[in-house]
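I'd like us to work through together how a protein chain folds, taking it slowly. To get us started, please write out a protein record for me. Label the sequence line and the structure token line clearly, so we can match residues to local backbone shapes. Once you have written the record down, we can walk along the chain together.
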Amino acid sequence: MSFKKIYSLFATFTIYLFSNYNVNNEQLKTIYIYNFLKHIEWRDDKTFSVYSILIITDNINLKTAFNTLAYKKQVHKKPIIVDYITSINDEVDLKKYQLIMIDEKFKNLNNQLLTKNGNKNTLVVTFNSEEKNLLMLNFYYSVDNRLLFELNRANLLNNGLVASDEIILLGGREIDVAEIYKDLKNSLANLEKSANYMKLAIQAQQMEMDKQQLEVTKKLQEINKLNINLAKSKEESIKQQQAIIDSKNTLSKLKEDFIKQQTIQQKELEKQRNILQAQLQTKIDEIKLKESILNKTIQENENELEKSKIILEEYKLEVEKTKTEVRNILNSKEEYLKEINKIEQTLKDKEVSLVVANSTNAKLSGSLIISVLFIIVAILFVIKITRSRKIIEKQTEELRNKKNELEFQKTELEIKTTYLNQSIEYASYIQQSIMPDISILSLFFNESFVIWEPKDQVGGDIFFFEQISHNEVLVMIADCTSHGVPGAFITILVKALEKQLVNEIKYGRIKASSPADMLGYFNRELKHILKQFDGSSKSNVGFDGGILYFNSEFKVMTYSGAQTPLYYLNADEIKITKYDRQSVGYSTSNHSFKFTDHTFSAEFTTRVYLTTDGYYDQVGSHEKMMYGKKRLGRTLQKIQDIQFQEQKYFLKEHLKDYQGHESRRDDVTLIGLKV
């Protein structure tokens, strides 16, 4: 128990007791209760979220004082809730309160409450209680009318409450205070006994050290004699060596001057080379960007042309169908004409026979019949032709309407396509803006390069560089689910989580030297945001990737990968680190999976490569198979004689050559670092 704490608490209570012109009686009671809450522990303190207080009073000033306390103060970072009653009945649930206080006006209820209270974890504060054996904490007035308190430690313990030593010293019974002083006295006695033992041990050690000091003094005297003889013999050799040293110093100074001059020239040449390389890289990137925009425009035009061809083919089919129907109608017309000719011929034959067989009256009757039949057939033909014409006109009108509808749909599709392309292009600018500045790598690595080629305008690959301290940096690479717009959405979410991760590292909640803990953080947070804990989430997304930690002062690297390897050159040999066969996120993954850290020494010539699967999963036009992880390792081994910056352009062109006429399967990201 600290004497400073006892004195501080005693001083606080003294100020409140003797400053009656600033604090009224009700406020003083409130201050007492607030200090009781702070210095008494409840058995089930962790099970409730607020401190509930019941005050049996009708005093308006007391209620106001307690309401002010509940509004302004908290106890152990938990709020205070105060209820008020004026009588005790069965409807009042006394068990839910941590503290019950009976105002002095209702002190006749003290014995009733102390007897009735069945909650073994409630502090009961009474006034002038006559049941000294039952009271826990009791207010009373002194002879000079000062408000004081007394407590019974045994009753507090019996009710599951523990009072601090400070409270007991201020208001406890004499037996309780005596126990505390007894404990203090025993502790001091034990400390004094330990100090005596330590004093004896120190004296014994001092005697032993004195003996050893005498022996050391004797040996030093012998050594001094030997040193005198040795010094005489060395004087001659020192004189001879001095001449050699002088000549060596002269030669060393000349050598240092030469090295400094050479270093300055080399740095200047290196600086000029870097400037030229940067200018060349800028021009190449501009050319590549223009080429990419041109290819995109050509591809869009080709797609539009292909769509127009499809629409034209459909229109041609409709026209051919209409022609066929017209042709069928015309064929029907020819058949009708043939039938009419047959009928006319038959009628003529009959007319001839009637001329031979019948008289003139019969001839007139036959001609009349033939004329009527001919008129009927002509009328039927005209009706058929009229119906056919109407059908053709109707079909022509339908084709015209369908053509107009297709033209409208084509125009609407072009507008939507233009708007979609503009939106995707703007999304591309947004995604590029969240990518880190590669210049931060120059603070930790001699050289570095980044290849980032989305399959579409936007992609699902993303990378980060974060400086943790003056000698610590994090390099992260992530391949999010899918590519294009869906993958880009996930990259924005991963970027936000990465910023939260940096804050966790700064506050010391996650170790900067443990990428495995960082992947675990991403896994838990991503599953929580996307509600993937129960396996029923429709957003079955996540990412594969890895995080590299580098300490430039101690030349130490630590890597952890989720389905993603790390390539690094050490002693002229390409090595591949192990990685966990577990992705980050996804509804079927384990949210508590522990990723693995792999630590290795970063020697002067170490070169490190981080890549997503877009490079080694690309299918070639000749081999019709994926490039593969092992082949990528062999390629990195072969290009180690090439300048580090030139490796970037070699790897990009090499992948294009292998891809050939095959389409790009996925986004490609590859980062190279040279220590």
